[in-house]
Amino acid sequence: MSSILIIEDANLNQEFVIPLFANGSPTLVFQTAKAQKGTEVIGNLTLYGQTIQPAELHFREGFTFIACFLFPHTLTQLFGIAPKEINDSYLDITLLAQAKKFDLEERLLASASLEESLALIEKFILKLSAQSPTDDDRIIFATEQLKNSKGLLSLVQLRNELHITERSFQRLFENNIGISPNLYKRICQFQAAFDQIHQTSLLKLINVAYDSGFADQSHFIRVFKEFTGLTPNEYLAKLARYNPRF
């Protein structure tokens, strides 16, 4: 796991909305209550692929929500899933043999505390990791370099460092991440700007744009709207409705 998000909401009388934006990571989610995503009902245990188009989860009862953000290349290694199959989509993880064998959903729903739930998820992922094939070092290196550079590293430079052709580089990302290297690079750049604008609303958008390597403020606004469905100012205005702020 690269990181974990935990949300606990006891408000039974008000709808709670969690926005789903591109972040470059497939995500394992456990939630104690069902949610609505568009016209679909999302169950308790779900595996999300790469999010490209923005979406929302709507909860209408109190819940606990645990999102485990996985490393971008791990869908095939851990679950035997071709990443492209669940881009902008999800799987009910109870359908996977690994989760059935571990009785993961049942054990999570029966857990007595948040700490117990986190321990169960960690144990499950560690068990999968121990049984998974060796990761391709090239995709680990490539994704880490792009994320650490906030999406600003040249793809040509990265490809040359890996000593592979452009076509092989493309296949490396599509087979392991489910998206092209250029799209992953753009998501890393967006996420760097998103994190910056989210940390404080006092920053000027022009400064965020330049700090994040965008050509100008208009370019930044276009990319931000592409991945969130909102302009930066519209997003900032809605922060009070998005709880927690992320």
Describe the protein's architecture and organization:
- This protein has helices at residues 74-79, 97-102, 104-110, 114-131, 137-148, 155-162, 166-176, 181-199, 205-211, 217-228, 232-238; strands at residues 3-9, 16-20, 27-31, 35-37, 40-42, 45-48, 55-59, 63-69, 90-92.
- Helix 3 (104-110) packs antiparallel against helix 4 (114-131) and helix 9 packs across helix 10 (217-228).
- It folds into 2 domains: 3-131, Jelly Rolls, CATH 2.60.120; 137-238, Homeodomain-like (Arc Repressor Mutant, subunit A, Orthogonal Bundle), CATH 1.10.10.60.
- With 246 residues, it is α+β, with helices and mostly antiparallel strands.
- The radius of gyration is 19 Å and the shape is globular.
- It starts with a strand and ends in an 8-residue tail after the last helix.
Largest sheet: 5 strands, antiparallel
**Rg computed from alpha carbons, rounded to a whole number of angstroms:** 19 Å
Output the structural class.
Answer: alpha+beta
Percent helix range: 40-55%
Helix and strand string, N-terminal first? EEEEEEEEHEHHHHHHHHHH
Q: Strands across the major sheet, in which order?
A: 1-8-3-6-9
Terminal CA distance reads 19 Å
CATH class of the largest domain: Mainly Beta
What is the CATH-assigned architecture of the largest domain? Sandwich
